[in-house]
Amino acid sequence: NELNVLTGKNQTAQQWCDTISLSLNNKNLNTLPSGVKKLKSLKSLHLDGNNFVDLDSSIGNLTQLETLTLL
Protein backbone atom coordinates (compact mmCIF):
# COMPACT_ATOMS: atom_id res chain seq x y z
CA ASN A 1 0.00 0.00 0.00
CA GLU A 2 1.16 3.53 -0.70
CA LEU A 3 1.42 4.50 2.96
CA ASN A 4 3.85 1.67 3.68
CA VAL A 5 6.07 2.82 0.84
CA LEU A 6 5.96 6.46 1.86
CA THR A 7 6.70 5.78 5.51
CA GLY A 8 9.70 3.63 4.69
CA LYS A 9 8.07 0.31 5.52
CA ASN A 10 8.62 -1.05 2.04
CA GLN A 11 11.88 -1.59 0.16
CA THR A 12 10.32 -0.59 -3.18
CA ALA A 13 10.13 3.11 -2.30
CA GLN A 14 12.56 3.85 -5.15
CA GLN A 15 9.84 3.05 -7.66
CA TRP A 16 7.83 6.03 -6.38
CA CYS A 17 10.53 8.63 -7.15
CA ASP A 18 9.01 9.63 -10.49
CA THR A 19 5.46 9.88 -9.16
CA ILE A 20 3.76 13.05 -10.41
CA SER A 21 0.35 12.65 -8.75
CA LEU A 22 -0.50 11.18 -5.37
CA SER A 23 -3.83 10.80 -3.63
CA LEU A 24 -3.82 10.11 0.10
CA ASN A 25 -7.45 11.10 0.59
CA ASN A 26 -9.35 9.78 3.60
CA LYS A 27 -6.37 7.94 5.14
CA ASN A 28 -6.93 9.34 8.66
CA LEU A 29 -3.54 11.09 8.55
CA ASN A 30 -2.54 13.86 10.94
CA THR A 31 1.02 14.19 9.65
CA LEU A 32 2.47 13.99 6.18
CA PRO A 33 4.20 10.62 5.56
CA SER A 34 7.97 11.16 5.61
CA GLY A 35 8.47 9.71 2.14
CA VAL A 36 6.31 12.34 0.45
CA LYS A 37 9.08 14.94 0.68
CA LYS A 38 11.30 12.62 -1.39
CA LEU A 39 8.91 12.71 -4.36
CA LYS A 40 10.73 15.51 -6.20
CA SER A 41 8.66 15.06 -9.39
CA LEU A 42 5.33 15.41 -7.57
CA LYS A 43 3.02 17.92 -9.27
CA SER A 44 -0.29 17.05 -7.64
CA LEU A 45 -0.92 16.04 -4.01
CA HIS A 46 -4.40 15.29 -2.70
CA LEU A 47 -4.83 15.08 1.07
CA ASP A 48 -8.59 15.60 1.41
CA GLY A 49 -10.49 14.08 4.33
CA ASN A 50 -7.56 13.78 6.74
CA ASN A 51 -6.90 15.27 10.19
CA PHE A 52 -4.15 17.81 9.48
CA VAL A 53 -3.74 20.75 11.82
CA ASP A 54 -0.69 21.97 9.94
CA LEU A 55 1.71 20.64 7.32
CA ASP A 56 5.40 19.94 7.76
CA SER A 57 7.49 22.73 6.25
CA SER A 58 9.26 20.09 4.15
CA ILE A 59 6.33 20.31 1.74
CA GLY A 60 8.12 23.43 0.51
CA ASN A 61 10.83 21.14 -0.89
CA LEU A 62 8.36 19.84 -3.47
CA THR A 63 9.38 22.46 -6.01
CA GLN A 64 7.38 20.90 -8.85
CA LEU A 65 4.12 20.87 -6.83
CA GLU A 66 1.34 22.70 -8.68
CA THR A 67 -1.79 21.37 -6.97
CA LEU A 68 -2.40 20.70 -3.27
CA THR A 69 -5.89 19.84 -2.00
CA LEU A 70 -6.80 19.72 1.69
CA LEU A 71 -10.60 19.79 1.75
SSE map:
Blueprint: H1 2-6, E1 21-23, E2 44-46, E3 67-69
Parallel strand pairs: 1-2, 2-3
Outline the structure in words.
It is a single chain. Strands 1-2-3 form a 3-stranded parallel β-sheet, with no helix packed on it. It has 1 helix and 3 strands, in the order αβββ. The protein is globular. The relative contact order is 0.24. The mean pLDDT is 83. It has 71 residues and is mainly beta.
Helix content: under 10%
Please count the helical segments. 1
Sequence stretches where pLDDT stays below 50 over 5 or more residues: none
How much beta, percentage-wise?
5-15%
What Rg, in angstroms, do the CA atoms define?
11 Å
The strand count comes to 3
Offer a concise description of the structure.
The protein has about 70 residues and is mainly beta.
Features:
7% helix, 3 strands, single chain, 3-stranded parallel sheet, 71 residues
